[in-house]
Amino acid sequence: MVYLKKSNGDYIYIPDLRIRVFQKLKLQPLKERYRALIEAGWNTFRIPVEKIYIDMLTDSGVNAISLEQLSDMLGLGLEDAYAGNRAYYKLLDVFKEYIPHKYLVLTHQGRAAENLVFRVLMKNGKKRYVLTNIHFTTTRAIVERVYGGRMIELPVREAFDTASNFEFKGNVDLLKLEEEIRRLKPENIAAVRIEYASNLIGGQPFSLKNYYETREICDKYGIPLVADISMADWQIALMKKRDPLAKGKNALSIIRELMELTDIAYASARKGFYVRGGFITVKNNDRIYEELRTWQVVFEGHTTYGGMSLKEVAMLIDGVKMAFDDELPFYELEQIEYAVKELDKRNIPVVKPPGGLGVHVDAKRFLPHVPLIPVNNQGGYPAGALVSALYLISGIRGMERGQISMDRDPETGEEIPVELDLVRLAMPRKTYLKDHLDYMIDRLIWLFENRHVLKGLKWVYEPPIMRFFEGLLKDHDNWGLELSNIYMKHFGEF
Ligand SMILES: Cc1ncc(COP(=O)(O)O)c(C=O)c1O
Hints:
Blueprint: E1 3-5, E2 11-13, H1 30-39, E3 54-55, H2 67-74, H3 86-98, E4 103-107, H4 110-121, E5 129-132, H5 137-146, E6 150-153, H6 174-184, E7 189-195, H7 208-221, E8 225-228, H8 232-242, H9 251-260, E9 264-268, E10 278-282, H10 286-299, H11 310-323, H12 330-345, E11 358-362, H13 363-366, H14 382-394, E12 396-397, E13 399-401, E14 422-426, H15 434-449, E15 457-461, H16 467-470, E16 472-475, H17 479-491
Helix pairs in contact: 1-14, 2-11, 3-11, 4-5, 4-10, 6-7, 12-15, 14-15
The structure holds pyridoxal-5'-phosphate.
């Protein structure tokens, strides 16, 4: 039971878990944070973890683990046979129960699964197009930069309106989907790809009705339906809350229903499956499985471990059960909802309605005076500036998910302006407490009051692909120093 009735008739959320392993955290003083930020080139990916207080960069590979996972890791996970280990066969049985697909292909992480899937479906670039609800950075890089194709996004209108409370922002625009299939011709389309709890629009789900209709269109034109289920845990939990077609169903029956409609599913297991790895499942196409397996042994490793350590293979057994548990995914959904409501009350622009993945601040509306794209070397990138400023004043690390995360057009070298320029404060699973959120909320409120001090960022070193990972920037006009001075007067070093 997660929601228990209180004596006054209201419902209260009680996390169904007890935490027994902890990690001590240390907040660095302001001058250390300022130094770390400069050394990291105003890029939160480059800040060493000992300089971080609360790490909300991502949920990927940093979730808490369960007792069952620990026990499998220290038991089955130590067997370490190169091939044919017991953990793999146990894992196959668990997959059979949750995902009614004939085949499983393990990979070392999500982008490795994407590499195999699009390598096979795009037939070395012969099928150029992948149509999707919302792209993800690694998917786009693989489809476009590795296999020379194009990813075409077909979201619903509300997806980019952060203030809209529309509950299914992850839906595909079905009219546009058919129009695009006819325009590009079905034989040129490798797949329709649907991302569960879509990452770049703030962990927003699609509806079951929209998924059924997408399936119908795929059937009509003979195009495979591919699902990115890295965050299926939150997608399904949100469906249980909001979707009339999911009412009264448990998570197991919803994932089985969704997978019956899906030809190929893949995931970064680092996210909803609590394990550093990845996987692909194939419903019933023997030829596609054969091809995937052929490339798996080239790029990933033997079929029974696929690039993962055996400890992680063993931990995935319970990871799958945790993803489709009826209670566990609500821990983070409750946290996100709480923080979104508190920030919204103070008019801080956040993505609504609360979704999965984390709290997403709309930097275009937070910093309307900072240009999205730098002009005349004056600085730009509101989300990049905001995420840096938040680290500086709090030690909290978020991630820029906006203009910096969108690479330039490889042909023209021009920036491709993004609709959403977000700061993501991810909620790693079962990792932080409400008090941590209260601190984050308080510092964001202070930053909002002092937002006029922030100016943009400009490049010092800009890598050509996925520039957000390793790029180096600096603050235009030394605004970081000015912000530090104001902070110091108000709070002191901490
Ligand atoms: C939706 C989605 N797909 C794919 C990936 C890539 O996975 P990985 O980081 O394991 O390579 C991610 C990573 O965050 C993701 O969020």
